[in-house]
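Forgive a beginner's question, but might I ask you for the amino acids of a protein and the tokens describing how it folds?
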Amino acid sequence: MRGAYGGPRVLLRRLREVMAEPVTAQERLDRIVVLIAANMVAEVCSVYVLRVDGDLELYATEGLNRDAVHRTTMRKGEGLVGLVADEAEPVNLADAQAHPAFSYKPETGEEIYHSFMGVPILRSGNTLGVLVVQNKAHRSYSDEEIEALQTTAMVIAEMIASGELAPPGGGVEPVGRRPAHAGGSPLSEGIGLGHVVLHEPRVVVKNLIAEDAAAELKRLDSALARLRASIDVLLDEGDVARAGEHRDVLEAFRMFANDRGWGRRLHEAVLTGLTAEAAVERVQSDTRARMQRQTDPYLRERLHDLDDLANRLLRELTSPGLGMAPAVAELPENAIVVARSMGPAALLDYDRSRLRGLVLEEGSGSSHVAIVARALGIAAVGQLENATGLVEAGDAIIVDGVSGEVHVRPTPDVERAYADKVRFRARRQEQYRALREKPTRSQDGVDVSLYLNAGLLVDLPHIEETGADGVGLFRTELQFMVATSLPKTAAQEALYRSVLEAARGKPVTFRTLDVGGDKVLPYMSMESEENPALGWRAIRLGLDRPALLRTQVRAMLRAAAGRDLRIMFPMVAAVSEFDEAVAVVQRERARLDAHGHRAPSSMSLGVMVEVPSLLFQLDEIARKADFLSVGSNDLMQFLYAADRGNPRIATRFDPLSRGFLRSLRAVARAGAKHGTQVTLCGEMAARPLEAMALLAIGYRAMSVSPAAVGPVKTMLLSLDVAEAAALLEPLIDAEDGPACLRPALQAYAAKRGLPVEP
């Protein structure tokens, strides 16, 4: 039958004319099925649309009983139409009724038709419906006809996705613009209601049908050449030229870009009559639909590479040379950023006054971007599969950072329910604020200091709002990450002075610059490392570049003139590193005195305990340091060799396991032995159940996010610390007890009625 019909280009040309007609969406769809049937010499052409309830509804037909339109439905997976929708693959049969999946619908009158070809209506890899042609004769449709039908399905997909098609008489809505609900992992508490901003916005292809196929092929080939050249340049640059895992990833990326099969499929799509952009979108949508149904994790991960490659190619076609800049310039009010993955610096690029939430396909609760989200006070959810494929820019969206749920295009009922939830949280926060003047003292009279983790000047008002005892961790690197160049000494001094003034006499612990890993400064040249979390970062960078550390210390000393100053050094792995850092501070203090500057009234120098090697040097470091602060996030990941940014293993080990609690207890005991204050400033302390365990093993100071002060304090006021210690200590010391003590602690909290839910 090859050549027995007008061909794809004729079909698309006529389709363009139909799309331009001033008619309703239903009338346009009715004309499209007539056009396809005539062009393909088919006796039947039908469109089935996937509805929000998961059923497929007949929306238009030429050849079947017209009375069956909007009356015939089938489940996804039912019949041949359901099979196409479920598998997202074309089905081409010469004798449809002999297929085991055939389902007879008597109202349609299709029993006289034998041959069947159905193709999925896809958009961004998501199935929106099925397009079908049928004939009485036993025949197999040609590859060219399948290609033509797939191309036409793209046009119908845009109609469905735009929301133009509406069911008659208030029927069930099509799936294209349906409300969607998905669950991920909570990263930052809170509820965000707003509109989607794609961190790497997709190119919206509006012109699907080509005027000149030869010209489109030329544009495609030029864009492919530019894309491949840009990847070659990336691989040849000095910071990735060395061998290593990062280079292997880019080599695989280059392999995909040069894959002949991918190029051939793009060419074939253009030859059907599509523009170059529409061809890229068509091929990638088909690929995404297939790979989303793969069970092999490796193949599913490669989908990210192919998506990235397709997006880069689309940008080469539409905006050559402009790259993949994030959409940070013009944010809507109440913006919810949706991304595949993101580093903390990228999140800080957004206007914080308009940012209400974050949704990531990747990311764990202890990743740095999650920590920054909590510092900004925005709701965040991670590990949401295909998040970028579920949404369109501008979609209404609700992010529940407590449960990990995300609602896209929510119904009015859902919006009302979340509005009530926001009001309830506001009332609960009022209850927490009512406790701010109450002493942080347990039922059995144990006094505890609750500090805040902060990193921005806007965090400081939370001290008064929560009644916190000060700032236990001020992340100085955030100032460096939001700047376009290395902050001068004067700028650093101004910030530190403002922070101390805003604290109103309460203590502030400044952590020296902690960059490296996923916290990258765009203006600082950093060598690529295979294991950046274990590499040249934090105090290692400061000691190797002493001018950087000296400048920061000098700014802190000047800012704290006449005030108490607390400085903490991160990522210390050996006592000798602390000694070197102290020497830098002492030299700067002497320099300050020599030039007649007013000195701090007192100065305390401390160490973050986050590298396991320090666990074997606790007596030495506790004698030398003025205070210790446990960074539980990094200590946990290094102790268990579990990358906290890797969602597969970030939650594999529980912080309430016996092994980790033993390590934390050893630090607390060393501090008590030498009279050295010990604080825990990791995310572990922000969860009431974990905070209860910390109190039981001897911690009397914790630093948490502002939102966590209320829940932790509420738990503490009801807790008998001695009783909790009597329960926990034997369990930690037991040789044959349970590996994780969470169930035992939960049972104890339930028995005592302790409020341990965040």
Remarks:
- Residues 1-5, 238-246, 323-327 have pLDDT under 50 and may be disordered.
- The first strand starts at residue 44 and ends at 50.
